[in-house]
Amino acid sequence: MKILLLSFFMFCGTAVFSQNNSLGKNDPEAKVILDNVSAKFKTYKSVTANFTLTIADGNNKVQGTKKGIVYIQGSRYRVSISDQEIYSDGDNIWTYDKSANEVQLTKFDPDANTITPQKMFTNFYDKDFLYKLNGETKQGGKTIQEIELTPVDKTKAFFKVLVEVDKSSKNIVSTKVFEKNGNRYVYTITLMKVNTNLADSLFVFNPKDYPGVEVVDLR
After folding, report:
1. Model pTM greater than 0.85?
2. Model confidence over 144-155: pLDDT tens digits?
3. pLDDT of residue 19
4. Less Cβ around it within 10 Å: N or C end of the chain?
């Protein structure tokens, strides 16, 4: 499950040895759309987003569907999906494995290219991807713009990401990750609330809420 959560944010992850986009040209139309998504997200004081994750194999056969939720406020976040949760108060990160009743505690390092939900919506594309606009479609009365991203670093486990953006709201509504092994991961945001009040305790793992939990402090 940890892999699934990481793949949810993988398109915002930066390679340790970053490369530039000199290997190809980016689509200026796609950049305008992505810039608008980033600018819009930065205006939100908080975000709560429900999402579904659909997993398919190389034959496009669905292997399962999971539901999750992500909370974002400033530099803090919390992600919950199936049997795992990740908390961060901006200083520490707790990764909780429900099946093992174990949580790993690590220090947040802003200079270590840490993958965070915030990066998912803000300028994740500038250095690590080539991008182009594939076109627009109508979905349920909405105009959806599809942008294709290709990683500059060819050693990554995925070779393509399709990002769908609501043209009107300028919000990402879904992403589809294509792995080299044939697997497909489709993340669809089913409900998004912004600028709601989120309690500070929401972003901190409290061992008292998980009787018998083993805390592995790796700081």
Report:
1. no
2. 999 998 988 888
3. 36
4. C
The conformation of residue 156, written as its DSSP 8-state character, comes to: S
**Dihedrals phi, psi of 4, to nearest 5 degrees:** -65, -40
Domains and CATH numbers, the chain: 2-8+20-217 (2.50.20.10)
Tokens 């790796």, residue located: 218
162/80 Cα distance (integer angstroms): 23
Q: In what order do the strands lie in the sheet with 62-73?
A: 129-139, 142-151, 158-166, 171-179, 184-194, 47-56, 62-73, 76-81, 84-88, 92-97, 102-107, 214-217
Give 30: exposed, middle or buried? Use CB within 10 Å, 0-12, 13-18, 19+.
Answer: buried
Closest CA to 4 of 150, 219, 179: 179
- Provide block-wise average pLDDT over 10 residues at a time, the chain (219 residues): 43 34 74 90 91 87 88 91 88 92 88 58 71 94 94 84 92 89 90 94 95 94
* DSSP code string of 84-130: EEEEE-SSEEEEEETTTTEEEEEE--TTTT---HHHHHSSTTTTTEE
C-alpha to C-alpha distance for 127 and 109, rounded to whole angstroms: 20
